[in-house]
User: Fold these one by one.
Assistant:
Number 1:
Amino acid sequence: MATRLKDIAQDLGLSVVTVSKVLRDHPDIGAETRKRVLKRMKELNYHPNLAARALVTGQTWTLGLVVPDLLHPFFAEIAKVISTEIRKHGYSLLIYSSDEDPELEAQEIRQLLARRVDVIMVASAQWTLESFRQIEEQKIPYILLDRSLQGLEANFIGVDDEAVGALATEHLIEQGCRRIAHIRGPEVSTAVGRLEGYRRVLASYNMTPMPGHIVSLGSSGDSRGERGGYDAARKLLATKPRPDGIFCFNDPSAMGAMRAIIDSGLRIPEDLAVVGCGNLSFSDFLRVPLTSVDQGNEDIGKRAAALALNMARKRSPMRPRAELIAPHLVVRASSRRMAPKK
Amino acid sequence: MATRLKDIAQDLGLSVVTVSKVLRDHPDIGAETRKRVLKRMKELNYHPNLAARALVTGQTWTLGLVVPDLLHPFFAEIAKVISTEIRKHGYSLLIYSSDEDPELEAQEIRQLLARRVDVIMVASAQWTLESFRQIEEQKIPYILLDRSLQGLEANFIGVDDEAVGALATEHLIEQGCRRIAHIRGPEVSTAVGRLEGYRRVLASYNMTPMPGHIVSLGSSGDSRGERGGYDAARKLLATKPRPDGIFCFNDPSAMGAMRAIIDSGLRIPEDLAVVGCGNLSFSDFLRVPLTSVDQGNEDIGKRAAALALNMARKRSPMRPRAELIAPHLVVRASSRRMAPKK
DNA sequence: TTGAAAGCGCTACCAA
DNA sequence: TTGGTAGCGCTTTCAA
């Protein structure tokens, strides 16, 4: 059906090998021959069969990416950046969305193994290390994105989550908040780290979270956390004393929380200051523009792409390395209670 | 490196063929043999090499998707839904983000051809039909998503854009708007269709767009249209008479437009009603919750997946078919100027 | 500078 | 029920 090297070779009275060499810019080919071959390739609209090539070379020129939710702008951006960066070097990206389901994720990783991708990247919802042991067994290089796993010494690229929590909490304190609550995420490293940073800063100010002031984002399934943030904030608003500042695990949950606050007739930031994390592109357009910790989404994607390309080329495994990205705060109306200090 | 059929066959004193048959659940295999083989496969953590299989069968079990901007929630949702749907049937998805660049898109389509994916899906930023002629030449089935192309008789799945424009415009008229402006999108079928619907409804009410009341979203590069919407709205606000309603090409541009309106001290919807399109998940959380035309994102993804699976199986090409999805309006505060009629 | 032979891991076909 | 042979389209190696 599709044109093959053989067709071109026959047309031109050459051998398949010669044509193959032209295809790959092999040096020892006569200028005239090369020209003829290239011309014929163009005429026939020839595309080399990458599956066949992969079978011989062992390289698929394909990378794999598994994220928990491709619709979440954070992961969408990472996917987009990686895809764009690696394309420049001839690689393509298989993308899977695991829906935060460890079983689905494991299945997707198995797919990636069967497809012999050159590098696997995962933002994992996994509880166990089994999937990663399997990857290691096949000697396929892999990178953990955003979320690290206990007991797994692997390449990791993500934000410094403790710094995220610290930054947000410190900011709220500076804005005069004294009863700072936290809406925490699920049991993955990001949520744990942010909680840790929050606790650490409070402690350093001799403060301590009041009872009921750390509440969990329920796993509301498909949603990114808007619903969970709403519900969590309702709980917080019912506590006494009421918090005067909330650090939310991420921006969607912060959006939900802000809605709950506004619905209850309170003002942001006067009655309650809110800080999120992710600095999503629409933060500026919300009812109250949202202060958020920026985790350098694009940076994460770019570094992941660069590392992956590096690993795809190297045959010898390198020592796993963790790249922690420093977060920074973007202050907007949702937390601005003091005049900016100079 | 990785385990092969041959390894398992040797271990068990069987032929490769027999093992291969077990792998594919071929009926005529002894129960005992099957059990032994499966056991050994599990032990060795065997994954069939799909590249090798693809070479023989001509099927890659891979579908390709090209979108203009994976970070745009509309396309992110389509990508996610398709990926999720096809996985159930053993297919994986290669995703590319073309950045609205026809040249990049053409390149990505060429990649997909080289990779012999079973079906190609494209939300195209193309001006010419060349890429699609190439796809046709290779006899790879393809589906156009969201945007159709003039003169190309192809499978298409997307919203009925004229209906989108009509729905939005009619709604604004019902809300008492009399000078309805339109912020139109770039020169692709979606923008053209929505403009057409807008014009048609105005005409049916014996209205006509005032001079300067149709303004173009500039191509502000990477952005989804927030910036373009802002700039476009500024232009509209400077016209006399000023519009009292704006139908925006999509939600991001509507967000930008609303910001411009608020910045200029006008009220939404009292002074100016705004309607967007896309019904993105955060529409509810904006400064003024945004009325938007829902184009059935999930539905588009599901139908695309179903059609693609169908095409991947069939060897015989079917007649191209267009599936138009009927949009519906989601009314929120940004346009609600009248009490709901009963 | 060119090409013949071998083989990548798997499946299709047909014979035992 | 099992397996030998051939071959998918390409690259690698080595000889001409």
Number 2:
Amino acid sequence: MEPSKVPAPFLKPYNPTEQEPQMLELWEKSGYANPDVCVEKGVTKPDAEAYSIVLPPPNVTGTLHMGHAAMLAIEDILIRYHRMRGYKTLWLPGTDSAAIATQSKVETDIYKAEKKTRHDLGREELLRRIGEFTEESKATIINQTKKMGSSLDWSRYAYTMDEKRYAAVMEAFVRMYEAGLIYRGDRIVNWDPKLQTTVSDDEIERVEETTPFYYFQYGPFVIGTVRPETKFGDKYLVVHPDDARYKEYTHGQKIDLEWINGPITATVIKDEAANMEVGSGAMTITPAHSGIDFEIATRHGLDIERVIDDRGILLPIAGEFAGQHIKKARPLIVEKLKNKGLLVKIDEKYTNNLATNGRGGGVIEPQIKRQWFIAVNKEIAFPDGKKMTLKERMREAVDSKQTEIMPERFDKVYRHWIDNLRDWCISRQIWFGHRIPAWFKGDEVKVSITSPGEGWTQDEDTLDTWFSSGLWTFSTLGWPEETADLKTYHPTAVLETGYDILFFWVARMILMSTFLRGEVPFKKVYLHGLVRDGQGRKMSKSLGNIIDPLTMVEKYGADAARLSLIIGASMGNDVKLSEDRVRGYKHFANKIWNIARFVLENQHDSGAAPSTLQSKVDGRLIEADKVLIVEAQKVAEEVSADIDKFRLDLAADAIYHFVWDRFAAEIIEQSKEILKGDDKRASASRSRALHEILLISLKLLHPFMPFVTEAVWQQLPKKDLPAGRQGVDLLMVAPWPTGGQTG
RNA sequence: GCGCGCUUAGCUCAGUUGGUUAGAGCAUCUCAUUUACACUGAGAGGGUCGGGGGUUCGAAUCCCUCAGCGCGCACCA
């Protein structure tokens, strides 16, 4: 064959850096990521079944990491596959404001540069600065997302703080309040003294610390504690009713004893919350700073006195220690008790799980606060007429298989979480976020989106960021308006995300969607693992083992980066990634390129390419070649079945082996003889067969490696563009080898 | 304390209702070839499938048990 028949770009090795931007431009110009355009151009039938995924929105102020890259690769594979199969396919992009994280980052930056706190700036100015910051940084994450080849419909882009989403959040709050699901109450909450806000139970991260465990003489009792600084107000001694050691004491009995700041009168309380196994079995309680103690106190109508203020400073009840920070006061208090002869012993090696704010905050101090809560155990009426509690509804969603969690083992984790779920504290004392639509005038409270009138002031607090995230599958589709998008694409087909946010997000979307829409937010939940380094360690700055997805894209191409995150990553398990693996898949991209080059160089009749339509085998092919095509179609079926089962790793592996070991190494090698041979019919037939196998391979590979396959496709002289289709001929919308929607 | 997961070649992992001689990639070694592609091809070595016990004609796969690693939740006076 004359070399001139081979298009110019094929004369060089595959160069992702050169090809990728061109492919991105082609895709973007085509508009095919938008399902409306696909229908308009005849790519998708107007009545085709919908397939939708809402992208878990990355933090606006963040940069793309390997976890994002894995998520984008998985979702893009599902999306491209379904688009090629003819579904009305929507992948909806967005970004998240990440309220606490963003505000604390901006506050820190401002303090470093100007030595000013948010109170120096005021609410309005701080929000303006945060707005500037998010505006600047959002371009970064959006650009990086595009570079991975993600075929997202940017015309539907949503941001958690944009006008429409803000309105949806307000609407949701009001509806839930009116249904009696949202209430305001004084309860023990997790208070972060550093960020000066409450945080939810799920946001708490336990950090193991070794700390002394002190035993003190408390009248006739010995009590144990790791927190002597809370003990000033302790005037109740709690033992288990069945504890034989204390049976001589009766419930309510008064005992005079010497304590930290002098003589006090303690009251004996018998309550089953006391654990006979721990320490001496006797404890004193601090109801204002402990959830369990608060419950005990409430149960018996005991006094509740605050000991520690919002910043962690001891209150006047601490006597001579008042005004000191709890951390500094602790050893001094122990010293004083020791001097008074009340220190019995110290167990130095006690392992304590310290509660901290997982979002970069401080050590949690339980405090009693008036906050907004969502009642999870209250029976209410759902839009579809069902009467049950939120907890029950969240269980029902998975029991009934309306939502299926994959891998299955996370189903149990989800149920376990629901069992332990308590009312969700949704108010936060930060400024950046959706402001609570509640208004106060004296003792009166009104909930409404706009001010009820003269003299009413709005609640200063904002909502937990997961409140708005919970609405995400439908707020992005136009809710509360009953839009066409909402009707077509909700419930979404799949929610694909990391297993680490199963509780934060997945469970809350189910909660919100079932209540506000009476339907589940997604039919399936697919949870992927964490991306770790080659040795299985978490990637972190301090270890210096971070593999940056964009560096990998620059060095080896986006296709290689994507494939390295898919092959070998079985469902729900962590992925171990090393640069060597990425490099290996770059070789594969080049292999594809060269296969195409060989096939094109050996086209006998470039004017009449084979039909290549699924299950129809070209009549001009000789028997041996028909067998080859059937074999390729079998691979297509296998790949499709694997994708349908969410076994993307197996699908990618199957097509990888077919293309390299079978197509390149065997079929093409054998073909060299045939093509050079004297049997014209055999040689023409083989030439057509190779072309057809190439087309099938490109299609099967495209969801996994969109760039190199599209680049090759664009060089092919003639493809199987279906009749009636307008616009650019892109592999992105070429028909899938096993056929349309119903398979 | 309750629950979940993992343990298969030097490394990373497949092996979905039990069924020939347990597979792949990377790495290692040997050979070939200037080729569609050296970002290549052919081949080799490498495994008592974590230990023990059981069910079965048959177990990497099912059951019991032990060990190591990892994770979640709860407790935390």
Number 3:
Amino acid sequence: MKYDFSAIEKKWQDIWEARNVFAASDDYSKPKYYALVEFPYPSGQGLHVGHPRSYTALDIVARKRRLQGYNVLYPMGWDAFGLPTENYAIKNHIHPEIVTKQNVARFKSQLKSLGLSFDWNREINTTDPSYYKWTQWIFLQLFKKGLAYKKEMSVNWCTGCKVVLANEEVVNGVCERCGSEVVHRVKSQWMLKITEYAQRLIDDLDQVNYIERVKTSQRNWIGRSTGAQVDFGTTAGDTLTVFTTRPDTLFGATYMVIAPEHPYIQKWADRIQNMDAVKAYQEEAARKSDFERTELVKDKTGVMLEGVRGINPVNGKEIPIFISDYVLVTYGTGAIMAVPAHDTRDWEFAKKFGLPIIEVVKGGNVEQEAFTDCATGVMVNSGFLDGLSVEEAKVKIVDWLKEQGKGEPKVNYKLRDWVFSRQRYWGEPIPIIHCDHCGFVPVDESELPVRLPEVESYEPTGDGDSPLSAIDSWVNVTCPKCGRPAKRETDTMPQWAGSSWYFLRYCDPHNDKALASKEALNYWMPVDWYNGGMEHTTLHVLYSRFWHKFLYDIGVVNTPEPYAKRTSHGMILGENGEKMSKSRGNVVNPDDIIKEFGADTLRLYEMFIGDFEKAAPWSQSSIKGCKRFLERVYNLLEMRGAGDGYSKELESSFHKTIKKVSEDIEQLKFNTAIAAMMSLTNDIYSQGKVTDQELKTFILLLNPFAPHLTEEMWEQCGFGGMVTQQSWPEFDPAKCQDAQVEIVAQFCGKIKARLMVDADSSKEALLEAVKSCPEMKSLLEGKTIVKEVVVPGKLVNIVAK
RNA sequence: GCCGCUGUGGUGGAAUCGGCAGACACACAAGACUUAAAAUCUUGGGAUGGCAACAUCGUACGGGUUCAAGUCCCGUCAGCGGCACCA
């Protein structure tokens, strides 16, 4: 029988669509399961073979859950705002909305050809005004709670995209998206106070089931460090506060450093005698791009402030103050106490500038290098701290500082507030009006959405403002508060805005009264299983957790965390083991694969290719093996024979396979689940016949992986109904066990024989069986047994001399 | 530099708790079918020595613990990913 995959796949895709088989029901009395994959950015290139890896994996989970009786929500949509579409629009003078429409249509037909069981009734699009209405609404709530604010600040400016970037979007000093140089620019920007949630974003990781590397990355990114804030006096009379994680080394502080942008420099301008040199250094630091700054990490530079000195609160000693760009104005207090003996950076700086190095923790050679080990050292040259361990000294000095009113314990985070403004067209307009009298006034909620106006050109203006700023009729409005002339905010939101809450909209996608109804949210949330790329760990996943927590705080959602479980798939690489890209010429188009091998084969291959969490190279020849397997499965129909239930020969194989496939799917071990089904097929082939019960079970197990073929087989067998209406097979643990098992007989740890024994043999019986087998008998002849090890069902090891 | 992960045949990869290394596939080779090829089916295979039974070696490298180590411990090397002047 020929396996005509094209006809079979088309047939069942049409049936599924016509019968609306995969629609999530609004019957909230059933147990629910919410499976989610990251919705794609509909790029002009169409679907990549990487996309189906994630989509198929959770499609398997979703299909299995339906068979297990759950009301399953497995939705899909489009994260369609963003730069590539806008750039394409600029180049080709086509409205981004039209470009988006075309790309979405292509993506959608490609996804449908994969037989993914998405509920297309709940399709969403972040560029749809009825969707971004609620993105804007959330922004307004953030604004009203003081979590959105505008700030004049130095921002990351991408010289290629001509747009402001969030810290998360700058990778090694260049733009994450286009690779262009990123420089600093001072601009007034909308910011979101994600830092206010830093501690909760760390703490609540304990409540969720994320794979460990995602948790670690998030913790590292948030970068919590505990220490103390210490007030140093200055000869100018001002207090200079520093943050340190090593307050124990206070006696070793031989100088101080402040960031080039530190406000005290201006304040002390009259006292600083070498202001020219200081100013020159400040200008130089400002000019450096992020890239140059990271490149020049090793070479410490700086200028000493002449005319102002710091005073160490612990001993009253005067010490010099430097400015240097190795101290960042955005972290801590923008000022540090430098302890060259016990900090590598301070040590390098001190060596270069010939500053004293005072050892206060014994254990290293501080003339050779900084001694930074906290665990073993003992305090010296530190007055009342002498003799204490580092940990004891930390406690004691902080207590002392508190008593003296010169310091207190302090926690700092590397996480910065989220730069939320983009000077671009193709994004959600920020719904704020600038009034000279009233300041920033939120657009009234009844006026939402603030729609994107038609413009002539999508190019940003020369001064870096959004193209929206050129549309006078849109910009000029009256102030909602006082009625005077006012102007709209012309910045738009970053791409991450729409994706920060999209999973909520799926719960109730057509609601025009709220972002989703309370009932729908209470029922569907949290997402039970969310799979996506590692690259979104510190961007999308962190941002959406932040928004979700905020929505929780204002009572919109009822769970503090959006995702109960988060997993991540590895990339699919080109055949040469490199990342797939147009320029490398190693891109595989899923359409071609579906045409040549069929969607079921592509799905199966992507799941069989290797460890789901690791990167795997594409192999055009391996895919043939998956096709061959499906053909063999289809040909099982010709082996259909008489007999009820499972045949004696295959009963335990079936129970074992049900167990293996059921468990492997839950642990992302799709490759071994498929291997188990291949083995079972080989077993059936060697029997030469298959019963109806066996066929039914096999079809059900394979269905989540190869849904079209299995539906077709089910129908051809005349089993009645559709596979999607059946129940997931159950296994009997008792029947997973064979009556007889092979055990290994070892002599001094080396295998000498294998023998079949009853599975329930006692230890004594096993030992006796092994001792009496001919191979062991001759080996044991005339020797004294030293040790006997018996592992039931596995082996017996006899050590003798 | 710091943190995390990984290292197994010609290839992708298997191997709950330490208990038969190499499941399942790809590629390869031989055979069957065929005028022939493709497809399909059957068989084979870690390496070395041996006709063979068998022996020795073998999970990046060097040590260790153990009756028994891919798995645990110490050290080294290589690759990948993240963070990176965060005080």
Number 4:
Amino acid sequence: MQYQFNEIENKWRKYWAENKTFAAEDNSVKPKYYVLDMFPYPSGAGLHVGHPLGYIASDVFARFKRLQGFNVLHPMGYDSFGLPAEQYAIQTGQHPAITTKTNIEGGTDKDGNVIPGYRNQLDKIGFSFDWDREVRTSDPNYYKWTQWIFKQIFNSWYNKETDRAEVIDTLIEKFETEGNVNVKAVTDCDMTFTAEQWNGWNEEEQRKVLMSYRLTFLSDTWVNWCPALGTVLANDEIKDGVSERGGHPVEQKLMRQWSMRITAYAERLLKDLDTVDWTDSIKDIQRNWIGKSEGASVEFKVESSKFKVEVFTTRPDTIYGVSFMVLAPEHELVNQITTAEQKDKIEAYKKAASLKSERDRQSDIKNITGEFTGAYAIHPFSGDKVPVWIGDYVLASYGTGAVMAVPCGDQRDWDFANHFNIEIKNIFKDKDISEAAYAEKDAVITNSDFLNDLPVKKATKLAIYEIERSRLGKGKTQYRLRDAVFSRQRYWGEPFPVYYKGDTPYLLDTDEVVELPAIDKYLPTEDGEPPLARAKKEDWNIACPGDRMEYNTMPGWAGSSWYFLRYMDSKNINEFVDVEKVKYWQNVDLYIGGAEHATGHLLYSRFWTKFLYDMGYIPFEEPFQKMINQGMIQGNSAYIAEVHFSIAFWREGHDLEKFYDENPLTTMYVASEYIESDFVDMEKECHKLMVEKFGEELMKDVELTYASTLRKAVPIDSVSGNKLNIEKYIKWSNAGSSVFLKNKNGDFTVEREVEKMSKSKYNVQTPDELVDKYGADTLRCYEMFLGPLEQHKPWDTQGITGVNGFLKKLWRLFHDDNGLNVSDETPTKEELKSLHKTIKKVKEDIERFAFNTPVSTYMICVNELTALKCNKKDILQDLLIILSPYAPHIAEELWAKLGNKESITYAVFPKHNDAYLVESNHKYPVSFNGKMRFMLELPTNMKKEDVEAAVMANEQTLKYLAGQTPKKVIVVPNKIVNFVV
RNA sequence: GCUCGGAUGGUGGAAUUGGUAGACACGCAAGACUUAAAAUCUUGUGUCCAUUAGGACGUGCGGGUUCAAGUCCCGCUCCGAGUACCA
């Protein structure tokens, strides 16, 4: 009786769905375990084999935890707001909601292409998701709560005294009673006011001030504007100076935008990385991104004016080395301090800088540019005049947008000074700075008045002390992290629950969701407003009490920043999540997904989680306790060389002419071995092959001339190993009239290349094909077997037969021609040993998240049982349980056949029994007086005293002891047994 | 430039705390069954020497620690990832 995986898998898939086998219980007495995958964006292209890799691993773990008696939450959903659906809408006019639905549920798109549907593809692989909890970020019932969270953030400020976010009312109360003098907040409000002043202001004025305290705020800010996408982008959405999606250029633009004050959480985001179990590499990326640096801010007065330039420096110890200052071209003081005679030059420079894209600025690093403003600043300690320049190596968005330049200690300052012939002061004792700056921190300071003869560390401390004492500035910690731009000028995203009266934004006073209104076109308006400006007031489901609604939408990361909470209570219409449920489920125990979200999603969801914690809505501060980042599965493309010839005929009127018209015989495909060979050889070989194919008579007057060689990708399903299946390829490419030059062994070899999966390279492998051919269980085992989960690896189907063979073997072991064939006999010791070895190893490996090795362990076990011809029921029962996380369908089928009424999901993971493992030995190296003499094998489960006795009784030991009693015996299992004689 | 990973047979990889390197699988070779193919099964398979017995070498390179190093330490080479005027 054969292993009919299709039948089995369909049957159990249906059973699991109908019986809701994987439903998580909300108020269980069992311990909880939360296993989560990063939810996918449902694109029209569907899944390829790389997508399910992480899902299979998490599914294995979820099933394993269920077997261990945990109440497992293992949900799935869709991050369904996003660009591709919107781009498609712009092209076709189809509403993104329809595209999204088709991509998830399957169907056909507007061009008639068949869309498989994410859900259908996922279902085929046999995941144990609790689908009743599915979320879609573009569902109004979901984004209602995204909007709600936005409102909470809007109504909050960050209190530095309590080091947490608080509701804005506590701030207003302080303003009303004592003004802002004693308020310690994260804010960009730089004025102080009294309670009288506050109370005297009208609502609009008060709101303006409050805006600079809110955790999400509207402000004019320098943003990354992407003209091609027609929207602003956050820093993490830009890679190498171009947009991550589409690779379009990005420029700096001053725009009125919503931002999230994530910088308020910089320190906590940094510190709490120590509390989560993530890879060092991800933690490192986040640490770098947050970019903490400590130093001081110092004010420099501008000569004969009321203006002051504030700078941030990490090296206050080098303050006597300052010989000039540089402002960012966008710095607000530039216009005010520039002298009349420099005005034109400065204006020209500013204009040139503003036209440069981010990318140009980066690629221009070596070009040193700048312009003198004509103004001088006064050195706060020495009183010297220092020229003030502008230069685009200083960023407007970091620190204060201005630097004190210390050319002897900073290479960029040195280059700038060198280029413009500005003085370079040396303040480092015995260091040569004639060729380059000295940036090491091991120097001793000199020529620096009160800092003379101090090493860097002490000088820094003293300098900060003096700066603070003289009220020139203060010690300061600066973060590279910027506040996150929260507006997007797009349609397909969450609308803001915000309206405007004049220029002042207000939250909509409603508990209803603000739904995306229907619009006629998904493009910006003619006067450059976002697409939502096309909606009339009455198109919105909420009546606008002011002049207009907010036209921006929220960025992609809004919905994904809290989705893990919604799974706990996805249908709740009264709250974003029920308090009791979140108390029970807590944070995600195991999170699996790609490492590419390190500075985006993973940072933002930590931020929102901390905020919700501060507000008392959830009882934990970190969303994802343990995380594993699965590697990318690359495509394994195959290339062949297509050689072109021109054909000449000797004789006129020859039949060949007609023949040639019908069969343009100008191409030959050559096996990869021939690619390097001479084209003269190719001509000969091709001719020979044509003679073989068409006969000598026809070919005798034909001359071939080599023209060119083309490298051509061939579909991977016509290749096995390195060999091309020529018939398959001919069928696919209609190359029937071409000839194929094989190598000496008679094979046609291809060139292989590992690269990203893409349609144009014909190297995409969908999981569906493999499920149809080998079954879901085989696919699951094989994807795990491929190698360590975290590692990038090329896809290669060669090995899949081995994994498939193991499942067949298992099936055969317990079946004969008549069906199930199991014996009720008591298992032998050997059989039990094989089983218990497997239980132990599989359990240990899954527990340390090694998902590849258990597959090998199963194979060894089945091989051993086959050799023992073991078909004992008792062995099979346990084997099925431990196999079920990896190959749930076959396990469930056999489990039922053995007469079990309940799904194997509710079985208990067996405990291994050491008694069956005694024969497995430990090696004890035995040494005398510190020198190793021999290895002794003893059973693993021996007690320390027994080991000692066994070693003492050993023949070789006795020889070495020669009647003496050892003074000291040191026994450490698997470590050396040391005898001091 | 800075930060973090990685390098093991023909291939993917295993070796968990320093303890028989190469598990398991692919591929390859030989054999069995078959008219044949597929499927299945058996055997072999790191390199070199040797008919065998057996021996020598072997985890990117060079050193070190240790009775014992793929694993720990120092110095390099190459590959991958992140980041980049962050003052």
